[in-house]
């Protein structure tokens, strides 16, 4: 008998959310970017980037206005070539309860705390639980 193992499903980090038409948003993923479910996303202009692209933050205030939310599913804009943005990429932006273990947070403790504080500052907030 063959045993099949299921990988992480899109949005597996989600415990609950307000109506998904309210708690989720869509934006353009910049060409050259790739995100997986649970990545923390930031907006620069009108385009989404994975938080790893921003290295010079260590407080929640530094993320104010930039934090978009949490990636929903896996999207790869790097395989589509230069100047090939992917439109209408969904992400959880507000009003949700999520599991910390399923989020891709920075390894640095200060940056991790800044991201968690920034998520909690979203209105209505994104609550992170163990």
Written overview of the protein:
- The protein is an alpha+beta fold.
- The chain has a single domain (14-129), classed as Head decoration protein D (Virus Head Decoration Protein, Chain: A, Beta Barrel).
- Helices cover 16% and strands 33% of the residues.
- The protein contains three helices and ten strands, in the order βαββββαββββαβ.
- It has helices at residues 20-23, 60-63, 109-121, and strands at 14-17, 24-29, 34-35, 40-44, 47-50, 67-71, 75-76, 86-92, 96-99, 126-129.
- The strands form three sheets. A five-stranded mixed barrel has the order 2-5-4-6-8.
- Strand 9 (96-99), helix 3 and strand 10 form a beta-alpha-beta unit.
- The longest helix is centred in the last third of the chain and has 13 residues, at 109-121.
- The chain is globular and about 50 Å long.
- Give me the CATH superfamily: Head decoration protein D
What is the level 1 CATH name?
Mainly Beta
Give the strand tally: 10
Name the structural class: alpha+beta
**CA-based gyration radius:** 15 Å
DSSP helical segment count: 3
Main sheet: strand order: 2-5-4-6-8
The largest sheet, given as strand count, sense and whether it forms a barrel, is: 5 strands, mixed, barrel
- Report how far the terminal alpha carbons are from each other: 35 Å
């Amino acid at each position: 008998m063959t045993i099949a193992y299921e990988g992480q499903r899109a949005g597996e980090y989600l415990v609950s959310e307000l109506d998904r038409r309210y708690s989720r948003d869509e934006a353009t993923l910049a060409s050259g970017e790739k995100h997986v479910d649970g990545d923390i996303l930031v907006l620069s202009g009108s385009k989404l980037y994975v938080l790893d692209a921003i290295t010079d933050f260590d407080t929640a205030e530094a993320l104010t206005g930039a934090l978009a939310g949490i990636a929903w599913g896996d999207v790869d804009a790097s395989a589509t070539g230069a100047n090939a943005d992917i439109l209408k990429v969904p992400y959880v932006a507000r009003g949700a309860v999520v599991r910390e273990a399923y989020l891709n947070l920075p390894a640095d403790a200060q940056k991790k705390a800044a991201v968690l504080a920034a998520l909690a500052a979203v209105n209505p907030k994104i609550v992170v639980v163990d």
